[in-house]
Design brief:
It is a single chain. With about 525 residues, the protein is of the alpha/beta class. About 20% of the residues lie in helices and about 25% in strands. The chain is built from nine helices and 25 strands. Strand 7 and strand 8 form a beta hairpin. The termini are far apart. Bound molecules: fe (iii) ion and calcium ion. Calcium ion binds next to loops. The site of fe (iii) ion (FE) has 6 residues, from loops.
Length: about 525
């Protein structure tokens, strides 16, 4: 009985649900590519097929993923001929392609919306490169990218920016033009890259169509976002390391549980398959992340020599359902369920094994939801977000205890999701003010979600005052810029005073430093 239950609980489902689940998965159509399918070499596009631009990502010391997607009318799927199109790609050391170091061909498949993912290898570590694609007689914009340093190298410094939560209707991506002017090795996106909601009037911008459910709905949504030139240009200029949060699929989903009640597992999985496939199609991801029906392995590592090790996490796909319902509750009952999990067993073991093996000074967790247990209640009434790590208290404690007991060097947790900046000491036991700080949490604000922001919000003013581990908070929109050296981590919080129209200036309301060997950030 025990064994049977165990095998059936592979996806966290009881037996009856598991059988429904396997039936739902087997009904998912195969990509349907056949060996004899004709390949078009001289396509006639009737328009620019590179309107979605180019992108690169997942840097390694010897290579990078190059991305494009052929579409003459990107927000209208299936306007492209339903045939396989051969593309060519080139990588050069100069912007005018006088010194091409690699080139090749790649197929753009209609089954994948004519997206192209090329994994280039054999490049030099820590070098800038330029790349472009050709299809028929058309040539893409020239992208710029950079490989990671050699695994055993200790670079003097690296710089990256991170952001999240770019709800299109809430405003303009005013942080990106400023991010483009920074000298960055990498851009990290922590999720809510799109929002799934229906278009609404009387907002700065409007989504095309209703709530997205089908594959073409998700494709149109990604295309609409990527046609924003500030976003597209930032992809063109830097390699990105991306992960998703909930809105790439459905608000506050957990494992196989939808936000709305009454959604059957079959419907839920079919929609999740569409969401995951569109995400893969639009992001510069490696083949290791290729979706398998409604599953997609997005957690992975990206190492910058012995300076920094980025562990990119997925806190949505494998978590158990939020305890006590979503929203804010006291920490009681199921919060302390020992079988509840935020990462799932496999990802958690992977993370811990990699942290133990890490030879890097800074060990970064690039993830979605806030880890510090922020009490938002008034007076004796304690309230915590059940969608964040405090809703999974045993998982949270286990990870922080692991940082402490295994002396993981300089853990820094990067967080998105909540549309505010926070700087938090991650304490081993938050109920004991004298408990050691075992890591640092930097929470990035939204690029647009939540609108202009910037007012003093009473709930958060109170939370900042009553939670001892909070060093700073801010309610502007923007992004976060970090510079890492072997001795010091400097964080500049960048704020855009408005997003309801384009062209905001950029401010740096605060900078914090973390000293190597001493967890916790200090205002500089
Ligand atoms: Fe968000
Ligand atoms: Ca979110």
């Amino acid at each position: 009985m025990q064994r049977c239950q165990k095998s059936n609980r592979r996806y966290g489902l009881p037996r009856r649900e598991f059988l429904k689940y396997t039936a739902a998965v087997s009904a998912i159509p195969h990509l349907g590519l056949r060996a004899g399918d004709p390949v078009t070499i001289q396509p006639r596009f009737g328009g620019n097929p590179f309107r979605l631009g180019v992108a690169s990502g997942d840097p390694e010391p010897d290579g990078i993923v190059l991305w494009t997607r052929l579409a003459t009318e990107p927000t209208v799927p299936e306007t492209m001929p339903q045939e396989i199109i051969k593309t060519r790609w080139e990588v050069a050391t100069d912007e005018s392609f006088g010194n091409v170091v690699q080139s090749g061909t790649a197929l753009a498949l209609p089954q994948l919306g004519h997206s192209v993912h090329v994994e280039v290898a054999g490049l030099k570590p820590h070098h800038w490169y330029f790349y472009r694609f050709h299809a028929g007689s058309e040539t893409s914009p020239v992208g710029r990218t950079r490989t990671a340093p050699a695994k055993n190298a200790m670079p003097d410094r690296m710089r990256f920016a991170f952001t999240s939560c770019q709800h299109y209707e809430s405003g303009f991506f005013n942080g990106y033009p400023h991010m483009q002017k920074e000298d960055l090795d990498l851009v990290i996106h922590l999720g809510d890259y799109i929002y799934e909601y229906a278009g609404q009037d009387k907002r700065p911008r409007k989504h095309i169509g209703g709530e997205i459910v089908g594959l073409n709905d998700y494709r149109t949504r990604y295309a609409q976002y990527r046609l924003d030139q500030t976003l597209q240009e930032t992809h063109r200029l830097f390699p990105w390391l991306v992960t998703w949060d909930d809105h790439e699929f459905d608000n506050n989903y957990a494992d196989l549980v939808s936000e709305q009640d009454g959604v059957s597992p079959e419907e839920f999985l079919a929609r999740r398959m569409n969401a995951y496939q569109a995400y893969y199609e639009f992001m510069p991801l490696r083949r290791r992340s290729f979706p398998q029906g409604p599953h997609m392995t997005l957690y992975r590592r990206c190492q910058f020599g012995r300076l920094a090790n980025f562990h990119v996490l997925d806190t949505r796909q494998y978590r158990t359902d939020q305890p006590n319902g979503d929203h804010q509750k006291p920490m009681t009952g199921k919060v302390f369920d020992t079988t509840a999990t935020m990462l799932g067993e496999k990802q958690e073991h992977w993370l811990m094994a990699n942290l133990l093996k890490s030879t890097s000074t800074w060990n970064v967790l690039a993830q979605q939801v806030m880890m510090a247990p922020l009490n938002r209640g008034e007076g004796d009434q304690r309230r915590y977000s059940m969608d964040q790590w405090p809703g999974y208290e045993i998982s949270r404690r286990r990870l922080l205890k692991f940082f402490h007991e295994r002396s993981i060097p300089n853990p820094v947790v990067l967080t998105g999701d909540i549309h505010l900046n926070w700087v938090n000491d991650l304490q081993l036991d938050f109920q004991d003010p004298k408990s050691p700080t075992v890591g640092t949490e930097l929470v990035g604000t939204a690029m647009t979600s939540g609108g202009n922001g910037g007012n003093q919000i009473p709930e958060y003013e109170r939370a900042a005052a009553q939670n001892d581990f909070v060093r700073w908070y801010n309610s502007n929109r923007g992004y976060v810029s970090c510079e890492l050296t072997p001795k010091m981590w400097t964080t500049d919080f960048r704020a855009t005073p408005f997003v309801d129209k384009p062209g905001s200036p950029i401010l740096t309301p605060a900078s914090f430093v973390i000293t190597q060997g001493r967890p916790g950030a200090e205002k500089s």
